[in-house]
Amino acid sequence: PPNNSLLISLEEEPSEELMPKEKKTFSQEEPVFLQDKWQFKTAKPNALPLRNWKYEMSSRVTGRDSDTYLHIYKTSFEVEAVPEKAKLIMDGGINEPVWNESATKHIEVLINGEQVKNWEPDDYLDRFMFSADVSSLLKQGINEVEIRCAAGLYEPVNLAHPPILIGDFALRRKDEGWIIAKEPGEARIGECWTTFGYPFYSGIAIYSQKIHIGKIEGKNVVVRMEKVGELAGIKVNGELVDVRLWEPFEVDITNFVKEGENLLEIEAANTMQNLIVGEPKPSGLLGKVEVLVRG
Fold it and tell me: For residues 44 and 124, is the Cβ–Cβ distance under 8 A?
């Protein structure tokens, strides 16, 4: 009904659907053994927003009564383990039109002195961004990034949003910056994923392990999660069982398990705060996880 209005329904006897259902009770509750460590992977590449830049302005004469002025941005990051796959994402600047879209503004992006080429539209964050593969340009140690924006009769490109390096890597804190390191591949339940390599990751991460289920005839099997940041989807043997957006974080998986070995996957998703704002918010499975057989 519209705001500030009420909908009242009257009938002689409440329908069966509206009648409160008696809650099923169980006399016993047995935990299923779970490994301390779970396999862990992200559904999309990890991210390192490049937020701290040095800025220079210069100009040079290019002809009679004409000059070109340059805006130059410089930053660096350290690589401990070179990732197999890495891209640089730019939000603005690439193919930015001028003169009623008859031309584009000049911009050059260099990593370790090599120009980044072959920019393509990218939907990692939104479809108006561009990315380029930079896997072959990265090296162990300090990597230098330089963005050169040249202009004459128009305003130069303005680096209004931080470029984002994405790839199959983890991040490790060092002094005031971050080191690109090898992905851990596993996680302990209760540890926020921002603390073990993914401080700026916004998206879905998958926790998985194989569990053994005994005889369950006449019994119920449930997954109970103590705390989640922010929501969780439960899969059993590759099938989605249910999604939980708020407490209680409990899902009945009885109809999806079989006696013997089963694959349990928990897909946790957080908000965009970590990536866009750059202030890591507790994310993932933040409390105890139990698989319980009730009967």
Answer: yes
> How many whole angstroms separate alpha carbon 192 and alpha carbon 285?
7
pLDDT of residue 148: 93
What is the structure's pLDDT at 82? 97
Q: Which pLDDT value is given to residue 97?
A: 84
Identity of the amino acid at 70: L
Residues near 94 by beta carbon (within 8 Å), at least 6 away in sequence: 107, 119, 130
- The C-alpha angle 30, 36, 37, rounded to 5 degrees, equals 135
Kindly give the parts of the chain with pLDDT less than 70.
1-27, 62-67
Report if pTM > 0.90.
no
Residues in a beta bridge with 178: 173
Task: Give me the phi and psi of 115, to 5 degrees please.
Answer: -75, 135
Q: How many CB atoms lie within 10 A of CB 276?
A: 14
Q: Where are the alpha helices (DSSP H) in 193-266?
A: none
In angstroms, the Cα distances linking 81 to 113, 135, 136, 167, 185 are 20, 12, 13, 12, 14
Two tokens at 84?
A: 């197999």
Q: What is the pLDDT of residues 117-129, one digit of tens each?
A: 999 999 998 888 9
What are the DSSP calls for 126-160, one per residue?
-TTEEEEE-GGG--SEEEEEEEEEEESSSPPP---
